[in-house]
Amino acid sequence: MDTQSLIYLFVGLSFALYIGIAIWSRASSTKEFYIAGGGVNPVVNGMATAADWMSAASFISMAGIIAFAGYDGSVYLMGWTGGYVMLALLLAPYLRKFGQFTVPDFIGTRYYSKTARVVAVICLIFISFTYIAGQMRGVGIVFSRFLDVPITLGVIIGMGIVFIYAVLGGMKGITYTQVAQYCVLIFAYMVPAFFISFLITGNPVPQLGLGSTVNDGSGLYVLQKLDLVLQDMGFGAYTSGDKSMIDVFCITAALMIGTAGLPHVIVRFFTVPKASDARKSAGWALVFIALLYTTAPAVGAFARLNFIDSVQNTEYANAPAWFKNWESNDLIAWRDKNGDGKMQLGKGDAFQGAPEFAETVGANGERIVANEAADDNVNEVYVDRDIMVLANPEIANLPGWVIALVAAGGLAAALSTAAGLLLVISSSISHDLLKQTFRPQISEKGELLAARLAATAAIIVAGYLGIYPPGWVAQVVAFAFGLAAASLFPAIFMGIFSKRMNKEGAIVGMISGLVFTFSYIAYFKLVSPEANVAANWLFGISPEGIGVIGMLINFTLAIIVSKMTASPPVEVRKLVDSIRVPRGAGDASLH
Q: What's the sign of the alpha-carbon dihedral 14, 18, 19, 25?
């Protein structure tokens, strides 16, 4: 069976599995739709949480960014890993004991205010739609290359699949679908990593292979060879970074803190029977996540080495098949600037953003790039960072079934997180805005219908954002983390650990943090992208890291306003105390 047939087979079987699980576990009540009935086993929930957490950014984009950014790319690895630990230790058990359906539910009840609940919903929608744009972009990339359809059509197909199991099954269907998706994505990530590590170093364990010598007789370690190769090409050393220390710190902190404010991850801890199970499922999730996250640095380094070996000084007429495959999907491109017919990599980007192709072809058969950069830029190759993990098996000439497996894994990663985000959006609209705020008399049947309609509308918006994303997958996701760090995290954290924080402080803090962070990101990424350089950044902090400043603004204004206004009612202060009391954990009612 050829590779393309294997891809159709693997992807088709995985989709059939997801849809079958959704039909089997269809939600019949709001409790099942929102929190899967509240009785999910901690190990199962840990695996589902890992799939929810390891999105297209983790599977597709993180190793790709590390491959090209080297040391600077480690901010994503450190931030996302550390953030999950913070979430597990600081928030998850307490939120489960509080016993609400959603994050806005917690904020609305803790801050005894419908206004606070609505503001939390608005923050959640900004965060979730920013995050989901990256996931749908990932879906489009995978479909575009492996199923040979345009990215736009790929996004639309992905929307349809998510619609079936997210709208039909709710959290119950998503939970068990995500367990299957975790198994697919981790197998798809690890198998090629084992193969490539063995081919390059002779050690099949990628974590160990990264610290081993290369199988070329040079006696050089992997990172030593990568440093030398890149320096010979005019780049900086792979193991050195160009980012300023303050920007590295802020991006890492924004990713860590933002993790602890991500509503689609937090809601997973509402699905277990009690608070102690929330801790257990958090521990299991960390184990499952660590399998991929400890492998990503090796995958990034191996991918960069293989890419250079395959492309550098190769005549375009003899370009490997994988290059032509990705070129046909506008995700890689070459422009022969010196007229020698060879592809040459050098410092600097050949093109600003994705390449735009004219209708004609060049002298060597390449498609003409309409928006080429200045002629003094020696780099002739454009490559979309998001393709590196997906293209890695092809570049390394691995068997067709491995390529097909990676395609299925990439889709599993993107779809699992997209489904979780869509559920968070729909439940916030149906439960927090309708049931708890504007239409408290709505029936359970009506609330369930509203949740499904909200999920449908959210899928349409998510698809649009996937077709027109404001950056690479991991980059877009980083913006979502910044928004979460600046808006929801301070309100949740102070809601648990500060009896003095009141509704006025929380509302002012959430609004100020969200507005500042979103405005900063929108200015540099949408309004004036040409100004997005370090010289123009506030304190030298990039849009990916500005969420830390937004968080400090949130905390500062919230504390000032709370001290200037009335203390929370006595029953709210007692409620805060009860959340942190270990005895009787898990006994809090849902309302």
A: positive
**Are the CB atoms for 166 and 36 separated by under 8 Å?**
no
What is the rounded distance in angstroms from the CA atom of residue 195 to the CA atom of residue 302? 11
Alpha-carbon distance of 546 to 82, in angstroms, equals 18
Which residue ranges of the chain lie beneath pLDDT 70? 26-29, 31-38, 99-101, 165-170, 346-379, 469-478, 581-591
CA distance linking residue 410 with residue 547, whole number of Å:
28
Cα(109)–Cα(495) distance, integer angstroms: 10
Instruction: Give, for 303, the enclosing helix (H) or strand (E).
Output: helix 296-311
Strand segments, DSSP code E, in 505-544 are none
- DSSP class of 173: H
Task: Give the span between the Cα atoms of 503 and 570, in whole angstroms.
Answer: 14
Strand pairing category for 342-343 and 314-315: antiparallel
Distance of CA 306 to the CA centre of its chain: 25
DSSP 73: G
Query: Per the structure block, which two tokens stand in for 315?
Result: 């005549």
Give me 491's structure tokens: 């309100």
- Run of H or E residues at 314: strand 314-315
- Among positive and negative, which fits the CA dihedral 496, 499, 501, 503? positive
pLDDT tens digit string along 88-129?
777 777 877 776 667 888 888 899 988 998 998 888 888 887
Measure the CA–CA gap between 549 and 517, rounded to whole angstroms.
Answer: 8
Kindly state the tokens that stand for 555: 């905390």
| 292: nearest Cα among 177, 187, 411 | 187
pTM: 0.77
> If you count them, how many residues does the chain have?
591
Phi, psi (degrees; rounded to nearest 5) at 332: -150, 150
Task: Go through 254-273 and write b for each residue having 16 or more CB atoms within 10 A of its CB, e for each that does not.
Answer: bbbbbbbbbbbbbbbbbbbb
